[in-house]
Amino acid sequence: MFNVVTQLENDAVEMRKVYAGAVRRQIEAGAPIIALEADLMSSMAMDGVHKDHPQHVINCGIMEANVIGVAAGLSLTGRVPFVHTFCHIQSGCVVRYNAVVDGVTLPENRYIPSTERVGPDSDLSRYRQVDRGALQFSEEVAATNVELVRGYQALRNEF
């Protein structure tokens, strides 16, 4: 289904351009890829891919944890989601809207409030464990996003 790169790219090429080029080639070869962006379109050189193939690139905003939920829903429809981000978010974490996690791995089950900036100098122990309510809310948001994607796909199929 996918073409495997058999030759390494020249080191002088930016990784973001390699990523965008690989996604573009797969889309143009007919792969059912949906590239999900977490407001990183320009950072990952995906603007051009989105312009040429808008049905294959969705900008979900700064909501990495929810992007994973959307990816899961898309995979149920036969699509192949491609997701990337700049940080490593462990299982069970809730990262609220407009929070920034940069250059650090969050421990499992941590709650990061809205507008918080978490970086290498942050004391990760000060972030509390995710409570049941926050986790349930995040699951509901992810489920809603999946339903929105299904709705958008149904609308597209009507035209």
What is the strand arrangement across the widest sheet? 2-1-3
Ends apart, CA distance between termini: 28 Å
Question: For the residues shown, what is the average pLDDT?
Answer: 81
Q: What string gives the helices and strands in order? A: HEHEHEEEEEEEH
Strand content: 15-25%
Please give the count of helices.
Answer: 4
- Give the CA-based shape: globular
- Helix/strand-derived category reads alpha/beta
The total count of strands amounts to: 9
Based on CA atoms alone, the radius of gyration comes out at 17 Å
Biggest pleated-sheet summary: 3 strands, parallel
Low-confidence stretches: none
Helix percentage range = 25-40%
At a glance:
With 159 residues, this protein is of the alpha/beta class.
Structure description:
With 159 residues, the chain is of the alpha/beta class. It is built from four helices and nine strands. It has helices at 15-28, 47-52, 64-76, 132-158; strands at residues 33-37, 57-59, 80-83, 88-89, 94-95, 100-101, 105-106, 111-112, 117-118. The strands form four sheets. A three-stranded parallel sheet has the order 2-1-3, sandwiched between helices. Strands 4-7 form a two-stranded parallel sheet. Helix 2 (47-52) links the parallel strand 1 (33-37) and strand 2 (57-59). The longest helix has 27 residues, at 132-158. The radius of gyration is 17 Å and the shape is globular. The model has no long low-confidence stretch (mean pLDDT 81).
Keywords, separated by commas or semicolons:
two-stranded parallel ribbon; 38% helix; single chain; 9 strands; 3-stranded parallel sheet; globular; 159 residues
